[in-house]
Amino acid sequence: MGFRHLIGAALAVVCMAGTASAEKLAKQYFGAQRDGSAQKAAAYGSYAKGCAAGLVQMPETGPTWQSMRLSRNRNWGHPDLIDFSVKLSRVAVKQGWKGLYFGDFSQPRGGPMLTGHRSHQLGLDADIWMNPVGRVNLNRNQRENISAISMRRAGGAFVNDKWTRAHHEILKAAASDPRVARIFVFPGAKVQMCKDEKARSKRKRAWLRKIRPWWGHHYHFHVRLSCPKGSRGCVDQAPPPPGDGCADAQQWVNNILNPPPPPKNPPKATAKKRGELRLADLPKACVGVLNSK
Ligand SMILES: [Zn+2]
């Protein structure tokens, strides 16, 4: 290779690097949105790689709920998610609470976020605080500052003494809604719910299948709706394995209490570092969502 070729190759590399770093990330576009798009409600893509049209803002305060951390502007959802959340807050009232505190839903047009979650991109995910709500008249400032309450002990192997039957009933009602695909909660909570659900028939325990043990999720539980009916371009996650999932949750707990020895020949770290999403990685419809009024 002659000298000129070398220079040319070097320049090409520099230029490619230049364009790559200059290209805005998808989260920068979506994180800058202030309002939902004036489009029919629709989700495009998958929970961790997509966006959403026609999202609706959860009213900041209602008779039986409050949205928390308003400064984040992440209280936007598909109309089904808003409807689901309002109804669930009434279940909480039946359990003796004043309602529910809602954490992050989605950004106004969904999409990747500048900080935090990987999912919550379709307007179909909601974080709901575990606090037994005693008042729904917190001011803006209080909603920035009060803390969510953890329900776990022993690293998530068990619930602590803050956990109540009301939690069981609220999560059960959530999981029983046919629109819900799964609910993420720490393993100790799932095992507790498995024990407290006295019904033995498969049909009556079916809701437990949707309660999925997961890391974190002891300050809040995370509800994920399935793709709404007729929402073409929305990609559902594979359903949870059949059965109530109680044995798997117990196994997870056992592993927290008695961690298995590390494998003798650990597999080489082959997992690629997850690249940052660019607009071109999202469904084409997401450009339309960004450009819409
Ligand atoms: Zn979440």
Automatic annotation (TrEMBL):
Residues 255-275 are annotated as: Disordered. Keywords: Disulfide bond, Hydrolase, Metal-binding, Metalloprotease, Periplasm, Protease, Signal, Zinc. Disulfide bonds join C194-C246, C227-C234. The keyword Signal applies. One of its GO terms (biological process) is proteolysis. Residues 1-22 form the signal peptide. Pfam families: Peptidase_M74 (PF03411). NCBIfam families: PRK09429.1. This is Murein endopeptidase. Metallo peptidase. MEROPS family M74. It comes from Litoreibacter albidus.
